[in-house]
Every structure is written in C-alpha cells, then in structure tokens.
C-alpha cells in the first residue's frame, strides 16, 4: 500500500504541508490573531501587531511559511474592523503582507537582519500604502502613513528581536 508520505520506491516524498509545519503555522497564525487585536491608531483601524509572527516565521522557518502567516494575520486584523476598505482591497493588502515577509526573509539571508528591517519597514510602511491612492486619493494615503510606518517598524523590530533572542538558544534549526 502506498501512502502520501512515501513514493513507489519507498523514499520519503517531501511536502511543504507536513503536519509539523501546518501545526507551527497554526500557532503563529493564532499569535497573529492576538496581535490583530492590538491596534495602532489609524483612520481605518487596520494597523495592528498582526505581522510580527509572520515576519518571525519568515526568517525562522522560511519565506513561504512566513508569507502565509503574514497574509492570514492581515485578514484577521481586517476582519476585526469589518473590512473597512472592502474585501478585495484587503485581499490585495494580504498579498502585499505575504510579499513583505518573503522580502524580509530574503534580505536577512542575502545581506543581514538590519538591512532586512529597514527594507521591510519601508516596503510595508510606505510602499504598501500606495495601494490606497486609487481608492481614497493621496489624502487617505497621507493620513494612513504615520500609523503604517509606526506599525511596520514595531512589527518588524519585534520579530527581529524575538528571532535574535531565540536563535541564540538553539531552538530554531
């Protein structure tokens, strides 16, 4: 009998969706849900500490895992405020969150954590908000900018500090 974890030649087939990884992503998504309730003042109420678990996951366990957690984190934050920008816009923002977490992991590996912190904060805090201009004009973008920059910086720095502390303990492989 052949199951999903072995191939015909009896060599294990690696899959992204291993039970361990799914459980870990569920735990970090739950942490993102808690962060989604910790808001940073903004006109829409959708800036929160939801991205830190995703950024941490990205540098600790890989860009794809972190990107998924970050995307779910944003959707949870948007859900707690009633999707004020509409579901399609929040889905696009979740896609951006995925991309910023992946970029954070990539830059941490290719350069160093400090470059990754600056780039992720800039991308999430300044570039990410540009998606608001077609819908609400530069007024909405500029009103969101302070909260987005502060929220981005806090999320990225929390994730980096947690990673630096935990990676020294040897718990992350």
Explain what this protein looks like in three dimensions.
There is one protein chain. The chain is mainly α and 173 residues long. The chain starts with 18 loop residues before the first helix and ends in a 6-residue tail after the last helix. It has one domain: Arp2/3 complex 21 kDa subunit ARPC3.
What's the arrangement of secondary structure elements?
Blueprint: H1 19-36, H2 52-61, H3 63-80, H4 87-110, H5 113-127, H6 133-167
Helix pairs in contact: 1-2, 1-3, 2-3, 2-4, 2-6, 3-4, 4-5, 5-6
Approximately how much beta-strand content do the residues carry?
under 5%
Order of helices and strands: HHHHHH
Structural class by secondary-structure content: mainly alpha
Discrete helix count: 6
Distance between the termini: 33 Å
CATH-level-2 architecture? Orthogonal Bundle
From the alpha carbons, calculate the radius of gyration and give it in angstroms.
17 Å
The CATH C-level class name? Mainly Alpha
Helix fraction bin = 55-70%
What sort of overall outline do the alpha carbons produce when their principal axes are compared? globular
Mean pLDDT: 91
Parts with pLDDT < 50 across at least 5 consecutive residues: none
CATH topology: Arp2/3 complex 21 kDa subunit ARPC3
Largest sheet: none
Domain count, please report it.
1
Number of strands: 0
